[in-house]
Amino acid sequence: MKRNLTLVFLLSLFCLTSFNLALAQDSGIRDTCYVERIPKVLPGTQVVMNIYIVNDEALGAFTIPLRFPDSISNLDITCDSISFVGTRSESAAFKSDSTSINNAKNRLVALAIWITELGIGNVASGPVAKIYFTTGSSWDSTSYVPVDTLVWPPVSELEFVPSATGIGFMPVFLKGALEVREVNTPSIPTVFSLSQNYPNPFNPKTLIRFTLPKDSWVNIEVYNILGQRVKTLVNEKLTAGVKEVEWDSKGDNGLEVASGIYFYRIKADDFSDIKKMVMLK
Ligand SMILES: [Ca+2]
Asked: How far is the CA of 130 from the centre of ligand 1 (A)?
C-alpha cells in the first residue's frame, strides 16, 4: 500500500511539472479556493483555519502554496500542521503532511491527489483541509495576518488539475487572515507610523491605524485620484499611543463617495505619510 502511494506521488509530481507547461482554461463556473478569515485571535492559543474549494471540474489534484504572514515579519506565530479532515478530502489517495511546512520562511504547501474524482460535473464545495497555527505570547503587533498564495518553485502559485483533461488550470483564490485581538495593555509606540487601512478594498467602512510616540497635533485627510480633498478624518491634538480612525466612505459633504482609488495622508509633528486605498461597491 505504501509503495502504491509513493508511486502515485512520484507520478503526480511528474504530471504536475508537466502541467505547468500548458495551463488549460477553467470551464463552467469559476473554480475557487479560499482560506478562512479568523477574527480576533488571542495570544498563546491554537487557531484552526479551514481551506475550502469550490469546483465543477472533476478535480483529480490540487496544489496550494500558502504564505503567512504576508509582508509582515517577526510575528510570534507558528504553523503546527495541516490536516486533511474536511468533508471533501476523505477520498484523497495522497495528502501532504507537516513536512511541507516551513516556519522559517512562513510558508506551507497543501497538496492532495484523488484516484476517484472529486466532484463530477456538478458544483461541489466544502472544507478540504485545516491549518493549525499557534500564536505566541507577544502576538499583538499588527491588526491581521493574511494567509495568501505565493509564487515559488517547484509548482505554480495555485493549481487545480481536473482528472478529465489532466491539464492544470488556475482557480480563483481568495485569501484568508488571522486577525489579532486588541491589546489590553497599551504601550507607547517608539515611532510615528501609518498602517495600511483594513479591510482594503472596502465597502463602506474601513479602519486606519496610526501610532504616535508622543502627544501630537494630528491631521488625517482623504483625497481622490485628482488630488482633491474629500474628507478630513482627524484634525486635533491626540495623546501618544496606538490610534484608529474609521472612514465610512462619506465625504465632508455627507455623501458617499464613488468607487475608486483614494489616498489618505497623515501629518503629525514632523511626520508625514500617504497610502492608497480602494473603495469598491
Ligand atoms: Ca470550472
From this structure: 23
Is pLDDT above 80 for 129? yes
CATH topology of domain 2-180: Immunoglobulin-like (2.60.40)
Residue-wise pLDDT for 176-223, tens only, equals 888 876 655 456 788 899 998 988 899 999 989 899 999 999 999 999
Break the chain into its structural domains and give their ranges: 2-180, 193-279
In the reported structure, the alpha carbon of residue 278 is separated from the centroid of ligand 1 by a whole-number distance in angstroms of: 28
161-174 pLDDT tens trace: 888 778 888 888 88
Contacts of 45 (CB under 8 A, 6+ apart): 134, 135
The rounded Å distance from CA 58 to ligand 1 centre is: 9
Inter-residue contact 279 to 262 (CB < 8 Å): yes
Q: Residue 86 C-alpha to ligand 1 middle, in angstroms?
A: 21
> How far is Cα 22 from Cα 245, in angstroms, rounded to an integer?
47
Q: Does 259 score more than 60 pLDDT? A: yes
Expressed in angstroms and rounded, the spacing between residue 214 Cα and the centre of ligand 1 is 54
The torsion angles phi and psi of 190, rounded to 5 degrees, stand at: -95, -15
How far away, in angstroms, is 51 Cα from ligand 1 center? 18
- Which span out of 112-116, 157-161, 229-233 was modeled with the highest average pLDDT? 229-233
Q: Which residues contact 110 (CB under 8 A, 6 or more apart)?
A: 51, 62, 63, 64, 65, 66, 82, 96, 100, 129, 131
Residue 71 has pLDDT above 60, yes or no: no
The secondary structure element, H or E, covering residue 8 is helix 2-19
CA of 178 to the centre of ligand 1 (A): 28
- Give the sheet arrangement for strand 193-194, strand by strand: 193-194, 206-212, 241-247
The CATH number of domain 193-279 is 3.40.50.410: no
CA of 88 to the centre of ligand 1 (A): 17
